[in-house]
Specification:
Blueprint (H helix, E strand, L loop, with lengths): L5 H16 L4 E2 L5 E3 H8 L9 E4 L3 E5 L4 H10 L5 E10 L11 E10 L4 H15 L5 E7 H9 L5 H9 L4 H11 L7 H11 L17 H15 L6 H11 L2 E3 H14 L4 H16 L8 E3 L13 E7 L9 E5 L1 H8 L6 E7 H13 L1
Parallel strand pairs: 1-5
Antiparallel strand pairs: 2-4, 3-4, 5-6, 6-12, 7-10, 8-9, 10-11, 11-12
Helix pairs in contact: 1-14, 3-13, 4-12, 5-10, 6-7, 8-9, 11-12
Length: about 375
């Protein structure tokens, strides 16, 4: 995608923001320079490799805004967890491996909705508002639900530590799969771990005579990790029947009505899934009420599991038809847990989404030329 004039992209961003303002959203403008500590706490050190970080002599580490959602949530929760509707437009900054197809500085336009009165209606509201903003462009939607996988994990016969490990790696499908195979007994225990466990089983101390410690972990942290490994070693393997149910859920990809019916079937054997399936059904009904063609709407349980890390429920995206080289035109989803983390005890259900203004403008100009 050729670079468009910055002024033209900014105008497109403002045009899209005006559409969201017309739905009742109040415009907000978070600072470009954000405290790095908050983002590092949320994302871990992984974000450091993708963000621009600098040091301020008074404020400590600062980060050029990698997205809008976190600072918008922070500002909202600082002011109180009340229902609200916001929109914004501006630049975000992320390091990229290929600067030709993924610019490191680009405009986002977004809509964020904080309201717990009817979460499924709020999901449909944000999705439909973004779909309307993209009307006339050659885009296709995708939807998913991180909460479906979470609810499935809740029903499996796993220890709390194993379930927590899977939840930590929910957004890293390869690591998630490796853990499932490990917990199901399908992977051999690494030789070095066997040796450590053998020492502990005989009452020995694997740290004795281990030499100088290298790294940031304290001895207390290392011993806590060793205790978790010992407890995990005596856990029974995850039954093959449950692995099969999990695979059915995470591998599900179909149009919405078919996906809903298949999830209902799985919920018969996995009752913890039923509330999440009921929420999914209400969401589809709310979407239909907003004019979305739910009968042809794609649904993929695992959609967003590699890119939408702070979302914990409904997720969606819009991509350019026939243009896999372009970034997603829009992405979004529900992030209830994020409001709790940033609210320091307060929380409110929230859902939002963003449009990449440059990609939208590129498609609009191509359509105009066609």
């Amino acid at each position: 995608m050729s670079r468009l004039p910055k002024a033209a992209v900014r105008d497109e961003a403002l045009r899209l923001r005006a559409m969201f303002e017309a739905t009742g959203a109040a415009p907000v403008d978070p600072a470009i320079l954000q405290p790095a500590a908050t983002l590092l706490d949320l994302y871990g050190e992984d974000i450091r490799a993708r963000a621009y970080v600098t040091a301020d002599p008074l404020r400590g580490e600062q980060m050029l805004r990698p997205d809008f959602t976190v600072p918008v949530v922070q500002e909202h929760m600082d002011g109180g967890a009340e229902p609200a509707r916001y929109t914004y437009s501006g630049e975000v900054f992320r390091k990229q491996e290929n600067d030709e197809t993924r610019p490191n500085e680009y405009f986002q336009v977004g809509l964020e909705l904080f309201d717990g009165r009817d979460p499924e209606a709020a999901d449909a509201d944000v999705f439909a508002s973004i779909a309307e903003a993209l009307q006339g462009l050659p885009v296709k939607p995708a939807t998913g639900d991180i909460g479906i996988t979470s609810a499935t994990l809740a029903g499996l016969t796993l220890s709390d530590d194993r379930r927590a490990a899977l939840m930590r790696h929910l957004w890293r499908p390869r690591r998630f799969r490796a853990l499932i195979d490990q917990f199901a007994g399908r992977k051999p225990v690494p030789t070095h771990r066997k040796a450590v466990l053998a020492i502990m089983a005989q009452g020995g101390d694997p740290m004795q005579g281990s030499g100088i410690r290298i790294g940031l972990r304290s001895e207390t942290e290392i011993r806590a990790r060793l205790d978790r490994l010992a407890k995990d070693a005596v856990q029974p393997p995850l039954p093959a029947s449950e692995v099969d149910l999990l695979d059915q859920v995470t591998g599900l990809k179909d149009v919405a009505p078919v996906a809903l019916e298949r999830l209902r079937d799985v919920a018969v054997d996995l009752p913890t899934l039923s509330p999440a399936v009921a929420r999914l059904e209400r969401r589809f009904e709310a979407m239909a009420a907003r004019g979305i063609d739910v009968d042809s709407l794609p649904f993929e349980t695992s959609f967003g599991r590699t890119t939408l890390e702070y979302y914990d429920g409904f997720v969606f995206g819009f991509s350019a038809i026939g243009r896999p080289d372009l970034p997603a035109v829009a992405i979004g989803g529900r992030y209830d847990a994020l409001t709790k983390v940033l609210g320091r005890g307060a929380e409110i259900p929230a859902v939002g989404g963003i449009i990449r203004a440059e990609v939208a403008l590129h498609l609009r100009e191509k359509e105009g030329a066609a």
